[in-house]
Amino acid sequence: MLRDERITEAEATETASRYRSCMADAGFVFDYVNPDGSTQMQTGNMSDAEQQRFHEQDIVCSKQSGQYFITHLYNALVQDPDGELRNRTAEEIRRDLAECLKRKGTVGPEFTADDVPIVDADGEEYVRFGQQFTDPGGRYYSGRNAESWIQCNDDPRK
Fold first, then answer.
1. How far apart, in whole angstroms, are the C-alpha atoms of residue 103 and residue 32?
2. Contact between residue 69 and residue 122 where contact means Cβ atoms under 8 Å apart
3. Looking at the structure, do residues 73 and 94 belong to the same domain, yes or no?
4. Fewest CB within a 10 Å sphere: which of 17, 42, 74, 123?
């Protein structure tokens, strides 16, 4: 998949299927999981404990399936076929993300690229940083901020 520097829709679909199966094995059944990462699941009224278990399982399944990174890379390739976004330096990526988050009102004006960690070899630090936006109880969490985090990671120009 990554050896050829391409991710096909079939490969992204396979990754989404692995993620969906992993979540189903834990009792979280999605109506669908698309190659672009969009999902639908009937949640009913999940308790706080069940929401926490869902988020923990989401992290596990995202890592095991490759969904977290493959989906972002697939979206980047689809949305940026000329490589404008992919060919940025680590500093440019951090700067663009910080500017996008500020533009969307997700963070305050004091937030800078220095607040964004560099993606380490396994992505752990970056995943933990992102959870501040996506997980209930996170420093920057809200439904809108979680969506802004995803959008800014996918394409900070929007």
1. 31
2. no
3. no
4. 42
